[in-house]
Structures are given as C-alpha cells and as structure tokens.
Design brief:
0% strand, mainly alpha
Length: 293
C-alpha cells in the first residue's frame, strides 16, 4: 500500500515539469491569439460607436453608446451595394479562371511529356522573381489600347489564368496522382481533354479547393490594379471604394473613420465566412508545395 502511494507521488513529481511546459505553451498561444484577433475586434467595436467616441482617452475596450449610424450613413452616402457586386463578380470570374487554367497547366506540366517541358516550366517559374509593380505600366498601356479601361474586362481578364503560382500549385498536386489511371484511360481510347475532365479533374478537388481559397482572398482584397484600371465611382471595387469615403484631401477625418470601420467590417465578413468554412484547407495549402519536389 505504501509503495503504491510512493509511486503515485513520484509520478506526480515526474509529471510536474511537463505540466508546467504545457501550461506555458497554452499561455503563449492564448496571448498570441489575443494579439492577432485584437485589431479585428477593434475594427468591429469602432464600427458600432459614434465617431467622437474614438477620441476618448484612454480608449474604452467596450463600445461606448453602441449605434448603427455608421452603417446607415455609409449605405446612404456610398454605392456599397454596387462596389460589393463588382468585388464579388470580379473575384468569382478570376477565381474560376484560375481554377480552370491552373488545373490545365498543372496537369500538362506534371503528366504530359512534350519537347522542352522542363525548360518552359522553369522559364515560367523565373518570372516569379519579377516584381508585380513593374508590369503595371505595360499592362495599363495594353488595356488602354484595347479600350478596356473602366470596364469589367480590365478588372477580370488580366490575371484570369491565376498566373505562374496557380500553375505551380496544381502541378505539385497533379504529380501525386497515379499515372496508371491516365495510361489505362489512354488504352481505352480517351482523349487527353477527356482524361483531364473525367479522371484528373475529380482527383484534383483538394488542390483546387486550396487554389480557390487563396485566389478568392487575393482577388477580394486586390486594391492597386482596380484603382489604376477604373475611373468612375460605379466601377470601383470594395477596397478602392472604401478609400473614396475618406476626406477630399485624402486624409481620414474622425467623422468618416467610423464609416471606414463599418465598411471594413462588411468587407471582412465574406473572408471570415470563407476561413471558417474552409479552415482545414488552409493547413493543406501551406504543406501542398512540399508534397512532391
């Protein structure tokens, strides 16, 4: 009996360092989560406060005199519905385009054998080293020459393929698929596009989900190109439109900060929904590039 008590006591002493380490890890993770989520909370809190409440010092953690005035004024003052439609339309078209063209290119570079495949692939990969801002002026000149400025064509066509990153991501995923299925389909007389549509595309769903999530988020938050390619208020997308509700001098005033926070909150809602619905694919997206070298 005594020996059993001694064993339990020794066991508790032995487990104490491990418990302390676990408690310390939890404390660090909780602090990290609070620091990460605090800006989001502060944005939502300010969106429900009167503008002058933001000047109170020291700031209050909870909303002071909660109100919906910022949202009401924002919807009355700006074409938020039109900006939201523009963002949704442009994001959807470009995401679908990236899925289709990225899957096609990824399948070709992963499973098809043709002359210069590796040279072409690495030549395309080398373009990732070129800063995107360098291409803005030539792209603007091309779009202007075609007469697409301030149209949906200017917002959707450039970048509709998803770029080299989409091709690379889908190639890495396609390389993990069994080649025997493709060879069997060829022996049965299936065309290359038929193999892609009936065999490869269904097997690519996890990779397509990852590509779709990141492409949707990137296009939804896109700011610089929509700012350059559009001039009329009705053709703006949400990130650019929210910048327009600032003061005429370009500086945000206290009176419009609440509306800016309200608009930012509305803009963040789709991203929060996407994250909560597909959060397990985010982890897959981080590791998918290391599936096969």
């Amino acid at each position: 009996m005594v020996s059993a008590r001694m064993r339990r006591f020794v066991g508790r002493i032995a487990n104490r360092p491990a418990r302390l380490v676990s408690a310390l890890v939890y404390l660090v993770l909780i602090a990290w989560a609070i620091l990460s989520l605090f800006p989001l909370y502060w944005m939502v809190k300010n969106s429900f406060e009167p503008p002058l409440s933001m000047t109170i010092f020291p700031p209050k953690l909870l909303p002071v005199s909660p109100t919906l005035d910022n949202y009401i004024i924002l919807l009355q003052r700006t074409p938020m519905a039109r900006w939201g439609f523009n963002s949704f339309f442009v994001t959807t078209v470009r995401t679908l385009g990236a899925l289709f063209f990225g899957a096609l290119a990824g399948y070709a570079f992963a499973k098809l054998r043709f002359f210069g495949r590796e040279v072409i692939f690495w030549a395309l990969m080398s373009t990732l080293m070129i800063p995107g801002f360098i291409l803005i002026i030539p792209l603007y000149q091309v779009v202007k020459f075609l007469g697409w400025l301030d149209t949906y064509l200017a917002l959707t066509i450039p970048g509709i393929t998803g770029g080299v990153w989409a091709m690379f991501l889908m190639r890495q995923f396609a390389r993990t698929l069994p080649t025997e299925l493709i060879e069997a389909a060829r022996m049965d007389g299936a065309s290359e596009f038929g193999i892609f549509r009936m065999i490869i595309l269904p097997l690519m769903k996890p990779g397509l989900a990852v590509l779709g999530i990141f492409t949707f988020i990137g296009n939804w938050n896109s700011f610089f190109w929509p700012l350059v390619a559009t001039t009329s208020v009705s053709m703006r997308v949400l990130p650019v439109g929210l910048a327009l509700i600032r003061g005429a001098g370009g500086e945000a005033t206290i009176l419009v900060q609440g509306q800016t926070m309200a608009g930012s909150t509305l803009m963040a809602v789709p991203m929060i929904i996407v994250f909560l619905a597909f959060q397990r694919y985010f982890v897959r997206g981080i590791t998918i590039g290391a599936i096969k070298g």
